[in-house]
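User: Some background: our group keeps a shared notebook of sequences we're curious about, and every so often someone picks one and asks for a predicted structure to add to the entry. Today it's my turn. The entry only has the sequence so far, pasted here. Could you supply the structure so I can complete it?
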Amino acid sequence: LVSERFASSAGIPILTQSIHQGAVQADSTTRLTIIGEVKNVKLRRGSHVFSLDALVTKSDIGDVIAGEPFLSINDIALRPSKKQIIIRGNEVISYSNDYD
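Assistant: Of course. Here's the predicted structure to add to the notebook entry:
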């Protein structure tokens, strides 16, 4: 998912024709208003370029919520027990969260 606010501010074109998909929040009941989609968006982090196809929502979900398809296509693995993100099998990024 990508928020409309983020897509607009980043200049990402939103395709609005024939959207037949929907999304719900983690509570499994609250529907998100889907207004379109973005295709083949390139996101950069350091020397890495990642590809993203996503639905666009009016809801402010943050900037981007990327799931399993994004992780798989871009060869990204999560190792929550060690608080690590592994990119393409060779770059390990450590992170922290507010739950510690």
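Suggested note for the entry: The chain has two helices and eight strands. The first strand starts at residue 2 and ends at 3.
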